[in-house]
Amino acid sequence: MLARRSSSKVTDVAPGHADVASFVEAAGQLADHSGLRPWRVIEIRGDARDILGAALAKADGAHGKDAEKFRAKAHRAPLVLAVVASFKPSHKVPHWEQEAVASGVAHGLSLLLDDEGWGVFWRSGELTRTAPVRAAHGLGKHEELLGWLYVGGLPDRGKKERPKGRIRVSEHLSSL
After folding, report:
1. Packed helices 17-27 and 95-115: angle between N→C axes, nearest 10 degrees
2. Shortest CA distance to 24 belongs to which of 95, 82, 91?
3. In the chain, where the domains are located
4. Per-residue pLDDT for 2 more than 80?
């Protein structure tokens, strides 16, 4: 985990469906109060990325060249994984905890993809939970989109990566 880095620029190669399925299976093995599995992942590849771009443009009210910018954003990687919190009825497990589980799956996926040598970065933003974006992803009444993992090959950077900045543990760890 100390070596993990977000890769905002990736190449046009991506893991296949079988690889993604194995990553999703592994990421789903996390702490999950009552075993609700309140999440799902949507693979977005090829021309389906145009649907994402159009939904983002519509949510923003963009037209013409401005709308094309959203299409280009959806094509930043050959594979986009939409991570969805899919809330389950429970008197024991509140929505915030179910969303935390879905977030854990997204982070686990990003770690697995990184560990397997794929470039990955997580995107979200103000348009994530808009009606056009919800509709494009086919979200149900009890679902919320958390964001997207953009996945592709790692470009040959030709130089050594600079180490990621470390946190100051004393600012984040205390004792009671």
Report:
1. 130
2. 82
3. 17-44+78-155
4. no
What residues are paired with 152 via a beta bridge? 119
Q: 69: which 2 tokens?
A: 């910018």
- The amino acid at residue 158 is G
Sign of CA pseudo-dihedral 165, 5, 70, 96: negative
Residue from 103, 124, 102, 120 nearest 111 by CA: 120
For residues 20 and 23, give the distance between their C-alpha atoms in angstroms, rounded to a whole number. 5
The DSSP annotation for 125-160 comes to: -TTTTSHHHHHHTT--TTEEEEEEEEEEEPP--SSP
Distance from the first to the final alpha carbon of the chain: 26
pTM of the predicted model, to two decimals?
A: 0.90
Q: Report the CATH fold assignment for 17-44+78-155.
A: NADH Oxidase (3.40.109)
Q: What is the pLDDT of residues 118-142, one digit of tens each?
A: 999 999 999 999 999 999 999 999 9
Tokens for 14? 């991506």
Beta-carbon contacts of 50 under 8 Å, excluding residues fewer than 6 positions away, are 71, 74
Confidence band of 159 (pLDDT split at 50, 70, 90)? very low
Positive or negative: CA dihedral 150, 99, 38, 134: negative
Strand partners, 51: none
